[in-house]
Amino acid sequence: MHKIKFYPVGNGDTSQIVLENGKRILLDYRHVKSSEDNKGPEINLCQTLRDELADDDRDYFDVVAFTHGDKDHIENSTEFFWFEYKKEFQGGDRIKINELWVPAALIIEDLTNDTLSTEIAFWRQEARHRLIKGSGIKVFSGPDKLKDWLESKDLTVESRQHLIVHAGTVVDTFNSENDGIEFFSHSPFVKQVDEGDDLRNGAALVFNVRLKSGTEIYDYFCVGDSDCSVLEDIVSISKTKGNEDRLEWDLYSVPHHCSHHALSPEKGEKETYPIAGVKELLLKGREGSYVLCSSNEIADNHAAYEQKMPPHIQARHCYENYNNQVCGCRVIVTMEESPEANPQPVVFKFESHGVYIEAMAAASGISYVASQRTPRAG
């Protein structure tokens, strides 16, 4: 079976796709230092991932994808991974990356002098090193700014075209026949990098992840921290280009820790009302679908309705409303599902006869099927 694991890391993102053939894809990495005493509430991500890899006799991921370079998606990652370009980040029990996936914005983003020793700067250098070398990386989007950067290194876009993935195409690293999975790149678009002023959230990776199990197929709409305008563009362009099926989903990962900005510029008093394109996307959920929020617990009290930072209770009400409209299963918040004394990932299993979510194994150590959906034929 294929599995997708969402780790309870607070208001941050880390998830892992474990394929039936054993390949592993990690999306983002946020390790909270205070979790190292193993008392929660966040999971000790560093130790958890090491243990999972050791159980599989591995010291590497097939792919590590950073949707963008904000701290809550890369925090403490430079202490965990093996870097090809930097000897100080090698050796010991560091985890290797066969292929690194990054948005083009991460490579070309200008950094100020006081940020050159931060984690985003180290990842920018690692991505640049691999792109110059010509292997071990996929760069998403081919803006003019990337072309200019390559030419500054006496390289051409043509010489690195095999490493560049354009919006509206399938990544060639995996295929449904051999791996049971394919990644269709929705975003970033060229204009988001060349014309946009937000090289993080606005130019983040967004995928349709299509999983095949037996004769059945399932769709996971995997979003970085994109706002509602980006999602509306994705819907419009997908329809124009004949890729509307790539908007359908059985599992939807909510952008930006249940922020209203992924739905509408206006938070709303009791519920956020999504703009037209996002509403259309939310209604693409299939019967039995799930919505996953990687965020802190979402309180339902007066203070929650007034708070500025996510998660937003108004956004949660919106997702619950539309999940009910498509006869979905439920909206899941990572930090609400995980027992504080023994944090555990939320695990979805994709099998030939349905999608299952495992219950937490806090007390008994036994996981069981909580719910399932009826599969569709491929």
Topology overview:
Blueprint: E1 2-6, E2 15-18, E3 24-27, H1 45-55, E4 60-65, H2 71-74, E5 96-103, H3 104-108, H4 119-133, E6 137-140, H5 144-152, E7 164-165, H6 176-179, E8 181-187, H7 190-194, E9 206-213, E10 216-223, H8 228-240, E11 249-253, H9 276-282, E12 285-293, H10 302-306, H11 313-325, E13 330-333, H12 334-337, E14 346-351, E15 354-358, E16 369-372, E17 376-377
Parallel strand pairs: 3-4, 4-5, 5-6, 6-7, 10-11, 11-12, 12-13
Antiparallel strand pairs: 1-2, 1-14, 2-3, 8-9, 9-10, 10-17, 14-15, 15-16
Walk me through this protein's architecture:
It is a single chain. The protein has 378 residues and is an alpha/beta fold. The protein has a single domain (2-377), classed as 4-Layer Sandwich (Metallo-beta-lactamase, Chain A), CATH 3.60.15. 25% of the residues lie in helices and 24% in strands. It has twelve helices and 17 strands. The protein has helices at 45-55, 71-74, 104-108, 119-133, 144-152, 176-179, 190-194, 228-240, 276-282, 302-306, 313-325, 334-337, and strands at 2-6, 15-18, 24-27, 60-65, 96-103, 137-140, 164-165, 181-187, 206-213, 216-223, 249-253, 285-293, 330-333, 346-351, 354-358, 369-372, 376-377. The strands form two sheets. The protein has a ten-stranded mixed beta sheet with strand order 7-6-5-4-3-2-1-14-15-16. Strands 8, 9, 10, 11, 12, 13 and 17 form a seven-stranded mixed beta sheet that branches. Helix 5 (144-152) links the parallel strand 6 (137-140) and strand 7 (164-165). Helix 8 packs across helix 9. It is globular. Mean pLDDT is 92; it is low at 361-371.
